[in-house]
Amino acid sequence: MILYLHGFDATSPGNHEKVMQLQFIDDDVRFLSYSTLHPKHDMQHLLKEVDKHIKLSDDPSPVVVGVGLGAYWAERVGFLCGIRSVLFNPNLWPEENMTGKIDRPEEYEDIASKCVSQFRQKNRGRALCILARKDEVLDTGRIAEALSPYYPVIWDEVEGHKFKSISAHLQEIKAFKSESETV
């Protein structure tokens, strides 16, 4: 089972395309939607949804995949729910770059301070990070610097921020997902 978390643009047709692409490596891909505007509510909602889907599945190695803001949530929710995550261009600092786009961006700082201390250290190796060198929205060099001590980082030389096509990375995702069956 793959749980897919969209980025800030929840209605982008690219979300459907990514779900379709993920179905090449797992028939069971589930799109989880959230508001994007209310961080504390989104976290509670996503924790409940991910937990529910894990309980409804017999997959021994479920994975949560997120793009942009969805990758922010995939990392945290994956850790808290005990499953691996794949992060495409994760927006690690929405409190800095979502001002004016969401109601309470400062809630991200609050969430970060209330999350398990040193959660990345405790989550080491349980996420895969795929970054676009041509991301026109985020500083992927800064993201790589923050995440590379904890997770493998793969660079994409073609895609931009929204990762229109993830197909070049499907085999890496499949191998990462399969790896969790043996851990």
From TrEMBL:
Family listed: Belongs to the UPF0227 family.
Cross-referenced PANTHER family: ESTERASE YQIA-RELATED, UPF0227 PROTEIN YCFP
GO molecular function: hydrolase activity
HAMAP family in the record: UPF0227
Protein name: UPF0227 protein GCM10025772_10400
Keywords for this protein: Hydrolase
